Automatic annotation (TrEMBL):
<dbReference type="InterPro" id="IPR054612">
    <property type="entry name" value="Phage_capsid-like_C"/>
</dbReference>
<keyword id="KW-0645">Protease</keyword>
<feature type="domain" description="Phage capsid-like C-terminal">
    <location>
        <begin position="230"/>
        <end position="502"/>
    </location>
</feature>
<keyword id="KW-1188">Viral release from host cell</keyword>
<feature type="domain" description="Prohead serine protease">
    <location>
        <begin position="9"/>
        <end position="167"/>
    </location>
</feature>
<dbReference type="Pfam" id="PF05065">
    <property type="entry name" value="Phage_capsid"/>
</dbReference>
<protein>
    <submittedName>
        <fullName>Phage major capsid protein</fullName>
    </submittedName>
</protein>
<dbReference type="InterPro" id="IPR054613">
    <property type="entry name" value="Peptidase_S78_dom"/>
</dbReference>
<dbReference type="InterPro" id="IPR024455">
    <property type="entry name" value="Phage_capsid"/>
</dbReference>
<dbReference type="Pfam" id="PF04586">
    <property type="entry name" value="Peptidase_S78"/>
</dbReference>
<keyword id="KW-0378">Hydrolase</keyword>
<dbReference type="InterPro" id="IPR006433">
    <property type="entry name" value="Prohead_protease"/>
</dbReference>
């Protein structure tokens, strides 16, 4: 596995009580490095949050070494003697050095100030590049895997000693040739064994390399705990992005990130009004109350099994193939839960919510009555929310409305643009068609109008992952299972921003 090393001229301090405790910053996040590179020059910075994510997701122990020498472990996260945290400034480390002979020697070197610089070894998972001109580039490392931190004497690399220790080092970071000066380019390499920035020459090479690397990754992935192994984070993140792209309803909902797994959203339930008072008189405190919407964590996901023959012989991008299949199944479940969820293990859906305003339409209503009702629904939305509102319709109900024309023979449903994207519009509002609403029979809700953004919240707990499953049953069948699951929850937090249509007898 190839890794990158960075040395920062930051001070490592020793405690004055001779307790063999040292501490200091390994890297200051968000700050540009000195000029790096040999043939092509660049400077880089570590994005805020990258270290905390790496520490949280670390699969192996992170060691505190002397001069990157794996035989000279001073402390480790394994026994808690090394503590790594990311704060507002960057990656901070504190360590209680194990009192071996070389441990005491290096403590004295640190205490005396001979060794005071910090270095860290890492593998880049996600980075972005920007051409700033004059042959200079800027690199932002957004996600990384952290292997070790080291105390070093000199802030310069010592390639010969590193090579002698068997470290497979990235000696020259390759800069993409197509980096634009106006826009940052991003390239995520999914290869598991060797992570580095690649420079594909053309689109065909990009596709071939992605196919080869991901398929090799699937074959070579080692199981880490019995019969399961977590696939690269980049793959799981790709699925979350596709989920957002595939479901406009999910995409429009308000997203709330939570590490704890639950969150409460305050909501005003009763509001007083202000008043005018004479000079010297007290303002009367108006009574108001706050309710709350609590979001906990629900598990959503999808599973697919692929044969080893397909993985080995596929001439297509298996990353995209498996991602698309899992996304289609996952977003169907999440979208339907946003709209219809009523079970304990589902979201609190829009349709079952009794606080949302409701319009009714008889099952045998005329076309004009249907149009009048839809107009009333849009007019019932507060102007503050109306500009961000949508019509959400089931396919059968949309098919009926799409055929209606005005007196001049023009269709009420028009082709339009919302946020620069072509879409259907009705009364100037975007129309979203979904199979997650009912067709339009008696007691059905085939249409919802309002602003999902202002009405519905989705909590996304960090830790969504894609997992490879290869147990004895799969082995006998010559297949490999892939599971994507994510812990989420959703609920209406502002029912005033929505109204729904119910079909009655």
């Amino acid at each position: 596995m190839k890794i990158e090393l960075r040395v920062k001229n930051v001070e490592l301090r020793a405690n004055k009580d001779d307790s063999l405790t040292v501490s200091g910053y390994v890297n200051k996040t968000g700050q540009w490095s000195e000029i790096l590179g040999v043939t092509k020059k660049f400077k880089e910075k570590i994005a805020k949050g990258a270290f905390s994510s790496a520490i949280r997701k670390a699969k192996n122990d992170i060691d505190f070494l002397a001069e990157h020498d794996s035989k000279k472990i001073l402390a480790s996260t394994r026994n808690g003697s090394l503590n790594l945290t990311e704060d507002e400034q960057g990656l901070f480390m504190s360590a209680v050095i194990t009192p071996t002979s070389y441990g005491r020697d290096y403590y004295e070197l640190i205490k005396s100030g001979i060794h005071r610089n910090m270095s860290f070894g890492f593998r880049t998972i996600k980075d972005s590049w920007k051409n700033i001109g004059s042959g200079l580039f800027e690199r932002t490392i957004e996600e990384l895997e952290l292997f070790e931190v080291s105390v070093v004497k000199s802030p310069a690399y010592s390639q010969s000693t590193i090579a002698a220790r068997g470290i497979d080092l990235v000696e020259e970071v390759e800069i993409p040739e197509d980096v634009s000066r106006e826009k940052t380019k991003e390239k995520t390499n999914m290869k598991i064994e060797h992570r580095y920035v690649e420079v594909p020459k053309n689109e065909v090479e990009v596709r071939q390399e992605e196919v080869r690397e991901f398929n090799e990754g699937l074959r070579d992935l080692n199981l880490t705990s019995g019969n399961e192994s977590v696939l690269p984070t980049a793959v799981a993140e790709m699925i979350v992005e596709k989920l957002d792209e595939s479901s406009p309803i999910f995409a429009k909902a308000r997203k709330i990130r939570s590490v704890a797994g639950s969150i409460k959203i305050p909501r005003e339930t009763a509001v007083g009004i202000g008043s005018f008072v004479g000079e010297g008189k007290e303002l009367i405190e108006e009574a108001f109350s706050l309710g709350e919407v609590t979001l906990t964590q629900k598990r959503a996901g999808a599973y697919i099994a692929l044969t080893n023959q397909l993985i080995n012989d596929a001439a297509m991008n298996m990353a995209e193939y498996t991602s698309n299949l899992l996304v289609k199944r996952t977003f169907k479940a999440i979208e339907r839960s946003i709209l219809q969820g009523a079970q304990v293990d589902e979201f609190a859906g829009i349709v079952p919510n009794s606080e949302i305003g409701k319009q009714t339409l008889k099952v045998g209503a005329s076309d004009q009555e249907a149009l009048d009702t839809l107009m009333d629904m849009s007019l019932s939305i507060h102007p503050e929310y109306l500009q961000r509102s949508q019509f959400i319709m089931s396919r059968p109900f949309y098919n009926r409305i799409a055929k209606l024309k005005d007196a001049a023979g023009h269709f009420y449903v028009q082709n339009g643009f919302v946020n620069g994207k072509p879409t259907y519009t009705l009364f100037g509002l975007e129309v979203i068609i979904t199979s997650s609403l009912d067709a339009g029979d008696v007691s059905h809700v085939p249409c919802i109008v309002g602003s999902i953004e202002d009405a519905y919240a989705v909590m996304i707990k960090q830790g969504g992952k894609m997992t490879k499953v290869q147990d004895s049953q799969h082995a006998l069948q010559g297949s490999v299972g892939f599971l994507f699951d994510i812990y989420v929850d959703g609920a209406v937090y502002n029912p005033d921003a929505l109204t729904k249509l119910e079909i009655i007898a």
